[in-house]
Predict the 3D structure of the following.
Amino acid sequence: QVQLVESGGGLVQSGGSLRLSCVVSGSTLDDYTIGWFRQGPGKDREGLSCMSTKDHITGVANPVQDRFTISRDQAKNTVYLQMANLTTDDTAVYYCTTGVEVAGGKCYWDIDSWGKGTLVIVSS
């Protein structure tokens, strides 16, 4: 059974950057499409970006497409989310999941499992 472990969150000032990591174990990256989503305080889940690691096909949500970039390191079985120019609205717990598909530059979410998440707090 695949397991996902997120890390890399923390406290950052508005305008700063962070890189989140999602380590995949129990399988290889090629077997899955991996996506990042978040849930802010009092907010619904928001899908951010996804990647079919086998095909290198990615998708990203319009609100973050100019600031967030997804990538992977096959040797480390890890998918990253590079976040730039963060604002207080980006404060959330960030999760990675296999419950997503990608096509035409868009992510199609069917989130049924996720890791414990990593907390990002952006201060003003």
Notes: Residues 4 and 24 are 5 Å apart (CA to CA).
